[in-house]
Design goal:
Blueprint: H1 2-7, H2 14-21, H3 25-34, E1 41-42, E2 48-49, H4 52-67, H5 72-81, H6 83-113
Antiparallel strand pairs: 1-2
Helix pairs in contact: 4-6, 5-6
Length: about 110
């Protein structure tokens, strides 16, 4: 875990964050307007700089809107009413997604052995 923190950048561009979540940059800009929790810093030229805290907020929003299919209003209410539940749910989904990916890799390796 320490190496992961060491490798992490201080700021990420909007393009990098959009690529992380597979969404358009315009989607991130829209979410900034709709969710006050996401407030990236901007340089003098208006270039957005996302911190790890911003990325975690986007991860929660992405989980609720894109993965679980919530409407934006429902996602806002969920974050306001049950922040801990939303955090935990996002962690569980991320763990299950990683587990599925690992199992798929193992299956592919086993298929090559046969």
């Amino acid at each position: 875990m320490m190496a992961k923190e060491k490798d992490a950048k201080l700021y990420y561009s909007i393009k990098e964050v959009a690529t992380m979540f597979g969404v358009a940059e315009s989607t991130l800009r829209y979410w900034e307007k709709e969710f006050p929790q996401v407030q990236p810093k901007t340089s003098g030229r208006g270039v957005r700089q996302y911190t790890l805290r911003d990325i975690e907020e986007i991860r929660l929003i992405h989980n609720m809107v894109k993965i679980r299919g919530f409407h934006l209003d429902a996602a806002k209410k969920m974050l306001a009413a049950n922040r801990t539940g939303a955090d935990r749910s996002a962690q569980i989904i991320a763990t299950l997604t990683a587990l599925r990916s690992g199992l798929t890799d193992i299956k592919a390796q086993l298929d090559r052995l046969v």
